[in-house]
Write a structure and sequence with these properties.
The protein is mostly helical. The protein has six helices and no strands. The chain has one domain. Belongs to the TRAP transporter small permease family.
Amino acid sequence: MLLATINNKLMKVLNWVIVMSMVFLVVSISLQILNRYVMRIPMAWTEEYAKYFFVWLAMFGSAKAVREKSHIFVDILEVLIKGKISQACGFIADCVSMVFFVTLFYVSIPWTVKNFGVNTESIPELNMGMFYLCIPLSAAVMILFGLEVMIARVKGVIEKEKGE
């Protein structure tokens, strides 16, 4: 399936972005600790970068969790209800998630575009649009991964019905 192929390639890029965000986050925090407590010269930019890398890490980590179905969820309905009703509840939950992802994507684009002309105070070279860019990008990835999850759920229900 084309969507699965695209998502597999996207997942490789996503894993790289997550790892690099984590590496830069650790380096930035380590520099902050070294400069603040050892050299006694705090550097504002290390704290600023740490915040940005953390947000990128969280947003793209959330996208990865969508594909791996590893977000926190309340499974009481899944435990109490079995069969088609349980699958229907899961599909409704997937639809609600998709509404959130699409809304996040739609709302974040104008905000990101608006902030491409704004620079940070502590790091004048850093454009705020680059910081906010992770929101529409991760939302788009969540939409693609969410579609794949929904399609897999529907296929699973159809295959179960054929097997019965």
